[in-house]
Amino acid sequence: MANRKSFSEVKETVLAAHKDVDPEGKVKFYDSWADNYEQDVETLEYRAPYLAAETLSSAFQGNRDLAVILDVACGTGLVVSWLHKMGFRNFHGIDGSEGMLEMAKTKGLYQNLKCCMLGTETLSSPISFYDAVLLVGALSVGHVPVEVIWELCKVTKPGGYICMTTRANNTNIHYKDQLESLQRSMEEKGLWKKIAVREVEKWERAVSESDCVYISGVVYLYRKTCVES
Ligand SMILES: C[S@@+](CC[C@H](N)C(=O)[O-])C[C@H]1O[C@@H](n2cnc3c(N)ncnc32)[C@H](O)[C@@H]1O
Predict the structure, then answer these.
(1) Does residue 123 have its Cβ closer than 6 Å to ligand 1?
(2) Ranges for the Methyltransferase type domain (predicted)?
(3) Total domains in the fold of the chain
(4) Tell me, what CATH number does 220's domain have?
(5) Pocket test for ligand 1, best of 22, 27, 120 (most atoms within 8 A of CB)
């Protein structure tokens, strides 16, 4: 691992990532960032993994030892590190970047890790299988297409939880609107029910000049209500 970077250096790294809108280019970027990712997001004061884990943990009813959790776009495994501290034990992870998956493997917390390009490939996980599914830090413009949330719901057990996050800064407003519109339409179809929406002012430090010092973000928690045919 390299020496800790300054905030300006991390900012440059993240802005470079934002330029790459092609999904293949994006995961290649994550391959190259994997070694320094955790150190850099700490500098950014990135809190989404903790906030999502804590939101799920507060609402979760059931046996934490037995619950099986799918961490989608798992990256290096920050979400699962928090969930493990909160008493959960069984984790599967999916990400499009082999480099990030390699780092996740070193945590020794996942029973299963798979490479999958969301939006291009469908989730190969069994239908109605997971007690909870999370997608943290990757539902945003240039990352995972909003339509993937259908698949998150599909692989969750009836009564299971789906926890998602997105950014609420200027460059992601259109994406956030699309995400919320699809979430509403899935609720109207009776697929899931909203449990909590947590709007957080200090989500992470801003890297773009068009934002304030911190950008805000949102954690959404849904509960699956029906089995799809
Ligand atoms: C900001 S990181 C978030 C990682 C982790 N969930 C966290 O909060 O630390 C975004 C992750 O999404 C993955 N990713 C981005 N677009 C993807 C796609 N289309 N399919 C699969 N993974 C993708 C990247 O490889 C990266 O690991």
Answers:
(1) no
(2) 70-163
(3) 1
(4) 3.40.50.150
(5) 27
